[in-house]
Amino acid sequence: MLDQPRRHLFLSIWLWLVIIANAFVASLYLFAAHSPAVLARMPGVPSWFFLVTGAIGIVNVICAIALLRWKKWGFWGILITAIVVCGLNITVAKQPLLPTLVSSFVGVLILYWALHMGDERKAWPRLH
Length: 128
Fold this sequence. Notes:
single chain
């Protein structure tokens, strides 16, 4: 068996939180797309917005699993989905700019920090 590199405990915990939270949020958004009650409370938001946002949650789960498997593209995928969600929230859902920017990128910044923390267990140089 090959010697697997060890990642920092905080990074492992963060990636599992990303997986669980995105799976939960994706299921909520996919359900909301078919819920007349939710659509009625957000009259200016088209139902495709919920489908796209739910799909992005699934993509984030895949990207976090890729990071657990030492794939650098997982980070870039999470960053791209944060940019897309930020744009969708501002343009389609008409969310305020500053809270949307903060909510979209705080998680990415924490992930970036977690990938670079720990001297001998720093994950970023080990990603391929």
